[in-house]
Structure formats: structure tokens, C-alpha cells
């Protein structure tokens, strides 16, 4: 499977930061990179980022509202992301689950309008350290897949999954390879159960403290079809 190298800028970046999009687009284009490259940016930068990227790399949104329009002050719909130039969006990032109380059902409800808008949705899952310490990591990830991945979307090829264990995000602590392999294998099994053969073609990304010095090793692990990068994606 062609890997996806995705960045997530979170709530970082003013207009000056778009220089990095320019530099990344040029590098990817010139090097004919053997991977798809995508940067998810704050909504305020989306339109300018997409115009600078000019299709050389993908530009994504970081979230959307489940409704197409309405009295939802401060929110942004999947159609709006698409209209601004996005190809992809994130849903269910642990920041959203933690600070906005997003549940699996809410995440699933965002993925469907994204598909209708023509966006691929990267659905983020991952266990907390307490869940891992309690021996529940695989069960938690399985439940998150069951709750946040609509079956028809899994079949339609318009989603990717990002496994981001919370203890790895922004900490510099990447789990042992065995942990990543074990959880990705579990996710693959869940996807095959849900979507049949189509589940084999869904990309499963790893996220959490990915940097230039560990990305090659991580991409070499079984069932790792790409990475979702936070801090390191701010620099071309
Ligand atoms: O949350 C992440 C990407 O969505 C990972 O962030 P870091 O790469 O900064 O650990």
C-alpha cells in the first residue's frame, strides 16, 4: 500500500507558517516522493494552504461539524472544508475527545458528511496510559473502531485509521515496536470484520512522537501504512 505521511498542525500556525507548506510542496513534487503527503491545518489557514500546495501535497481539515450548515457558531462543516480546498479531514483526535467531550458516536456522525463532501476521514483512536496499564488497550481500541467507524464507510474506501496512544503524543516516548504491531494487527482484524475484504485496503497510520529519526523504522512495521505527525510536521 502506498504510505500516507500526514501532518496535524493542531492549533499552531499563522500566515507566516505557510512557508512550510510551500517548501514541503516543492520538495515532494521535485522528489516524486513514494508516499502521499498531507498536512491538516487550522480552518483559518485552509484555503491559503490549499492554494499554495496546488495539489502537490494534500491539505486537510482538523475536524468538522456533523451537520452541513446551521446555527452552530464557531463550527465548520465538511462541505466548507471541501470548498476551501481540503481533500481530507481528521475526526476524533484525542484533543477533540478530551477537550470537546467527543464520543465514538459523534466521531462516526462526522465521517458520513465528510464522505458525502468527497473527503477522506482519518479517524483517530488510542488508549490512555491507565487503560494500557489495566490491560485493556486492545479492547479499548476495538471498541473505538466499532463505535466510530461506520460500516458502509469502511467498505467505501474513504477512511483511514490513526492509532495514537495518548502517552506517546507530544511526549517523545514512542511505544515498543511490538506494541504498535499488536494494536495495528487488532485494528486490521476489526476492519476486516466490519468491511470484509475492503478492510485490507484501509490505511492504518501510527501517530505519537514521530520524528525524522524514527519515521523509517515505524513505517517498516507490519500493518503500518503511514504516520500522523504532530510537532514535527510544523517544519518542512
Ligand atoms: O497528536 C499527534 C498527531 O495527531 C501526534 O503529535 P506529536 O507528533 O507531536 O506527538
Structure description:
The longest helix is centred in the C-terminal third of the chain and has 19 residues, at 177-195. It contains ten helices and eight strands. The two termini are 24 Å apart. The protein has helices at 18-31, 43-53, 78-83, 94-99, 104-117, 129-133, 137-148, 151-156, 177-195, 215-219; strands at residues 4-8, 36-40, 58-61, 88-91, 120-125, 159-163, 203-207, 226-229. It is of the alpha/beta class and 236 residues long. Helix 7 (137-148) packs parallel to helix 9 (177-195). It has an eight-stranded parallel barrel with strand order 1-2-3-4-5-6-7-8, surrounded by four helices. The chain has one domain: TIM Barrel (Alpha-Beta Barrel). Bound molecules: 1,3-dihydroxyacetonephosphate. 1,3-dihydroxyacetonephosphate binds next to strand 8. One of its GO terms (cellular component) is cytosol. One of its GO terms (molecular function) is triose-phosphate isomerase activity. Homodimer. Pathway: Carbohydrate degradation; glycolysis; D-glyceraldehyde 3-phosphate from glycerone phosphate: step 1/1; Carbohydrate metabolism; erythritol degradation; Carbohydrate biosynthesis; gluconeogenesis.
What's the overall geometry?
globular
One letter per element, helices H and strands E, the order comes to EHEHEHEHHEHHHEHEHE
Bound molecules: 1,3-dihydroxyacetonephosphate
The residue fraction in helices comes out at 40-55%
Total helices: the number is 10
Low-confidence stretches are: none
CATH architectural label? Alpha-Beta Barrel
**C-alpha-based Rg, rounded:** 17 Å
Strand content range: 15-25%
Strands side by side in the biggest sheet: 1-2-3-4-5-6-7-8
Total domain units = 1
Structural class: alpha/beta
Keywords: Cytoplasm, Gluconeogenesis, Glycolysis, Isomerase, Plasmid
Family: Belongs to the triosephosphate isomerase family.
Catalytic activity: D-glyceraldehyde 3-phosphate = dihydroxyacetone phosphate; L-erythrulose 1-phosphate = D-erythrulose 4-phosphate
Main location: cytoplasm
